Amino acid sequence: MIVIPAVDIKNGKCVRLLQGRMEDETVYSELPWKMALKWQADGGTVLHIVDLDGAFAGYGVNDNAVLEIVERVDMLTEVGGGIRDMARIDTLLGMGVGRIILGTAAVENPGLVRNAIEKYGPEKILVGIDAKNGIAATRGWSKDAGRPAVDLGLEMKDLGVTRIVYTDIARDGMLTGPNIPETENMARETGLKITAS
Questions:
Q1: What is the pLDDT of residue 151?
Q2: Tens digit of pLDDT for each residue in 130-149?
Q3: I need a surface site. Which of 51, 116, 153, 154 has the fewest CB within 10 A?
């Protein structure tokens, strides 16, 4: 098992949100790269980065903070939040990001997932499935996707995805750990590698 620390960025700061509510934040650092270096010093080998503002806006908002992290750490970085087209994927990978996490785009534009995997390979393109009561959510968790998370996972597998980052929204930011039964169910039903978030 690999423990993957996370740096969630809002307004250029490292924060934690309770269940994805933008108004319910705790600021951990004014400089996200300092938190990233702390995780690296603590033994982290992979770093999960989320542009929270980007997730809601639909485009990259905190690129400067992401770039500062990527330039300073020796860890494999994966970034999600507001990545909705190939140009954005190209930009982030060009900045030195190691892996891309597609969430809303996977639901709304599955062709992008297929094309990105064809261009960069499944080791560089992950899909984030965020769910509440087993139903996928999009657009920074503000919209119900209207379909079971497992069904979305199976569709992504058919497109060539090999790893899912699975989040139970009700548990996120609550410091209670991931929803193990739902994560196990996703792994069992899809046969994919799962990162429990």
A1: 97
A2: 998 889 988 766 667 789 99
A3: 154
Q: Are 113 and 127 in contact (CB under 8 A)?
A: yes
CA distance 183 to 169: 12
What would the mean pLDDT of 42-52 be, rounded to a whole number? Answer: 97
Nearest-Å Rg of the Cα atoms of the chain is: 15
pLDDT for the residue 142: 67
CA gap 83, 122 in Å, rounded = 16
- CATH tag for 6-196 (out of 1.10.287.40, 2.60.40.1120, 1.10.274.10, 3.20.20.70): 3.20.20.70
The percentage of the chain sitting over the pLDDT mark of 90, rounded to a whole number, equals 77
Catalytic sites, residue numbers? 8, 130
